[in-house]
Model the fold of this input.
Amino acid sequence: MEILTRNPRDGVYAATEDYVHAIEVRGAERMLFVAGTMGLDGGGNPGRTLEEQLGLIWSNIRAILAAADMTVDNIVRLTSYLRSPDYAEANAKARTDALGGRPVPTTAIVVQTLQESWLVELEVIAAG
Done:
């Protein structure tokens, strides 16, 4: 599988260090669409803080990917649903750390989550 970053410099605003406009995937045999994943522990309880929930989210995503014989290196798209715009910086840092600095196309949306205690939800697409 080949992953190519597509960041045109003309006709569109500049991408940032942790963001790319697009990724082209060539030769992928499998696609994995991961449902919105929350910062819940094994018992279904949300982490008490934003940082704890972000840690649980990425742990949960790793477990889901592993079930498909994939890792975070297979992530090619990510959407973040944030309960508050104040969570954007911590979310971006957690994403950057989890992906080892590898930028992927990402969108962050501020929403009202189904449970008030769910602060962030992440949805990913992986290819392998």
The radius of gyration is 15 Å. DSSP finds two helices and six strands in the chain. The domain at 2-127 is CATH 3.30.1330.40 (60s Ribosomal Protein L30; Chain: A;).
